[in-house]
Specification:
85% helix; mainly alpha
């Protein structure tokens, strides 16, 4: 049987690398969520601007319909 023997420093390095990987994945998830929220906010703002532009260019007759 083949056994792997790790020293304490190697185990600590593996644990540290694993923690960094998990924190990196969490941070990537947070950034992606923030990006999607910002994108949605920009879409809503764009729609507001488009509606405002249409309201400005509409004639009084079109508004009263």
């Amino acid at each position: 049987m083949f056994y792997l023997y790790f020293s304490n420093i190697q185990i600590l390095m593996l644990v540290f690398a694993f923690i960094i990987a998990v924190l990196g994945a969490v941070k990537m998830y947070q950034i992606k969520k923030e990006y999607l929220v910002k994108q949605k906010e920009l879409e809503v703002e764009s729609e507001k601007i488009e509606l405002e532009r249409l309201k400005i260019t509409a004639t009084p007759e079109e508004i009263s319909k």
